[in-house]
Amino acid sequence: MRLSEAIVHAEGVTPLQYMLMLHTRAFPDRDWATVGELAERLQASSHGTVALVTRCEAAGLVSRVPSAHDRRQVQVQLTPEGERCLKRLAAAHKTEVQAFGWAFREERI
């Protein structure tokens, strides 16, 4: 956990911002999520999630886009900078997980 926090902080974001970016991209066949979906996945209140989205938006990581189908709904999407940041963080985490590859060999599971 501490290593993941160090990786995230080195990129200039918080662990919660990283989780929000991950969950924004976690829906099949789309590249956005609603605040309600993000709140559910983060196990946070809608109010707290709105505040987190606002902080991510101020950092240039996400943007809010009104839904074309339901004007009451707002879609949270990664910005190009958010995409780049998420890819760098995912690559750093992948490298770290692969370092423990020996622990996941079939004979050890």
UniProtKB/TrEMBL annotation:
Pfam family, one: MarR_2
BP terms from Gene Ontology: response to stress
UniProt name for this protein: MarR family transcriptional regulator
Domain of life: Bacteria
Species of provenance: Paraburkholderia tagetis
PANTHER family tied to this protein: HTH-TYPE TRANSCRIPTIONAL REPRESSOR YETL (PTHR33164:SF43), TRANSCRIPTIONAL REGULATOR, MARR FAMILY (PTHR33164)
UniProt domain HTH marR-type: residue ranges: 1-109
InterPro entries: HTH_MarR-typ, MarR/SlyA-like, WH-like_DNA-bd_sf, WH_DNA-bd_sf
Molecular function in Gene Ontology: DNA-binding transcription factor activity
Lineage of the organism: Bacteria, Pseudomonadati, Pseudomonadota, Betaproteobacteria, Burkholderiales
